[in-house]
Amino acid sequence: MNSLYKEIESIRGRFAADLESVSPGQESEILRHRYLGRKGALNALFKKMAALSVDEKKEAGAAINELKNELSLQLEEKNASSIRQVKNREKSDFTLPGYPFPMGTLHPITTAVSEILGIFSRLGFDVATGYEVETDWYNFGSLNFPENHPARDMQDTFYTESGHLLRTHTSPVQTRYMTSHQPPVRIVAPGRVFRNEAVSARSYCVFHQIEGLYVDKKVTFRDLKGTLDLFGRMYFGKSAKIRFRTSFFPFTEPSAEVDVSCFLCQGKGCRVCKQTGWLEILGCGMVDPNVFTSVGYNPESVTGYAFGMGIERMVMQKFGIHDIRLFYENDKAFLSQFY
Ligand SMILES: [Zn+2]
Questions:
Q1: Ligand 1 midpoint to CA 317 (Å)
Q2: pTM listed for this prediction
């Protein structure tokens, strides 16, 4: 019996020494095999219990089991600390290549807006902003829309329950700005606009516009042509040409649609310009005297021009994008092309 206890103590001592010499993460399985395995030192002790009396067996069994638990625990701790050490070593290996983090990019609409605003600010225009929720007066009335104009129809305009509406164009920024500023006024107004239209590849319920307005004494249509001609060349390239076609808008008289020569085919005719050699980019005209009256300006003493362009359409033309909905789907594959 006594020799059994001596052997327990001796195993405990040997195990402690072996454990000390074990290198991290390598030999603990050998030790487990040597001490706790089927042919290990502890099983050999259990076998020696056969010669003992029943009471002695009970006592010796408990002592050996205690040793067994103790050794298992120490081995587990050793393993855990080995894993920690290996992990720490990995953490501090500064020679490993870093993980690539995907970077976000500017949305193509954001890029186009800031590029266009940059051009007009170099031409002396200030940036003005307005409200996305507007009154009927600023969105239509102040801009010389007759009461029965089709654009006021419920089909085209989103109305709120409070009787306001989501602006259908950025033009209310013009009249808001003029009611609080005296001429000369020279502004560009970027923003989101809303139309209650069927969503398709060509039209969406939300899109972006940039509005321009210049009011002063003796502003002429020639100033408008000169400004837009310069803008066309700065945005689309030096060889870009501009042409004006007569049109109609309630808030300008005379009014014109402006086309730029197709930058893809240089005017020869291609799929994007539908073989015409021209791309429609904006609407413009001389501010209607009724608009000046509605904001408290004297139409006898000031004149001015205004223009407005749809950003989505310009970006679609520039990059050959065929579906306007792509701008609003947040599809990473689409957006990552504009890195
Ligand atoms: Zn073309």
A1: 10
A2: 0.68
